[in-house]
Design a protein that fits this description.
5-stranded antiparallel beta sheet; alpha+beta; 5 strands
Length: about 80
């Protein structure tokens, strides 16, 4: 179970937060997306949006992919890095 300390750490280490989702760049270039509100679903995607792993349902995946497509330029430009 995720507790407040875990969520605080996720938020602190996030490169970008959009609508309750923390986006973080991984060392391999992929992006980890974690919902910071219950039920704490997560995904790992490639920079092109291809899903590698997820615990999200199809609707949540579509929502998160839309957030990624509209905001990825901020992570790529290093504005939040």
């Amino acid at each position: 179970m995720t507790n407040n300390i875990d969520i605080d750490k996720i938020i602190e280490n996030a490169t970008m937060i959009v609508c309750g989702y923390a986006f973080s760049k991984l060392d391999d270039g992929n992006i980890r997306i974690i919902s910071i509100e219950p039920p704490f679903h997560a995904s790992i995607i490639q920079p092109n949006g291809e899903i590698l792993e997820t615990s999200m349902d199809d609707i949540e995946i579509e929502i998160v992919n839309d957030y990624w497509k509209r905001n990825k330029k901020f992570m790529e430009d290093g504005i939040y890095a």
